[in-house]
Amino acid sequence: GENVEQHPSTLSVQEGDSAVIKCTYSDSASNYFPWYKQELGKGPQLIIDIRSNVGEKKDQRIAVTLNKTAKHFSLHITETQPEDSAVYFCAASRTYKYIFGTGTRLKVLA
Amino acid sequence: EADIYQTPRYLVIGTGKKITLECSQTMGHDKMYWYQQDPGMELHLIHYSYGVNSTEKGDLSSESTVSRIRTEHFPLTLESARPSHTSQYLCASSEYGGRGDTQYFGPGTRLTVL
After folding, report:
1. How far is the C-alpha of A31 from the C-alpha of A24, rounded, in Å?
2. Mean pLDDT of chain A
3. A3 contact residues in B (CB cutoff 8 A)
4. Which of A3, A69, B51, B102 sees the fewest Cβ atoms within 10 Å?
């Protein structure tokens, strides 16, 4: 069946460094790729998304890149801060249903 | 900021009890979803709804049931809770058209069945 692989499962970076999380999807018809941040005790919050007709999107310190040919997309966080520490999920979708990645626990060390 | 609410936030109950987890959204979204999140963080779709009087089972088999009588309300019910139902339950909604693909999540209900 369709799946999304997400790596790494855990990531520790020093404050101020960059963090990169990568996802690979199997359904070539996927056309929408959101990223969510989940803090402890809260529901996932959308932080950035990209559609299949765009290769890159940026919002302040966060950027997402999409390579449709290789079927992978990545989240880039620059100048990381302690408040970036959370679990991050990628997802791929071509209809209303999402296929989620397995999550990445990011720790930003002060 | 998404206006989607879940109650209760935390629930501890004994085996065999009937429970209903509430989910409401004020955005007028037609689609709503229930996910179960295991301790390993993975999100599993257990139910979804296209709109009023529409409900479908998700990818993960669940003993829970749902109803959609009003657009804004999508409760999940367990007729007889068991320890295996202990989990985090997340509700989400999305709209048709516009940013129709984007799902907005509630804060979740953490259920513990003793």
Report:
1. 13
2. 94
3. none
4. A69
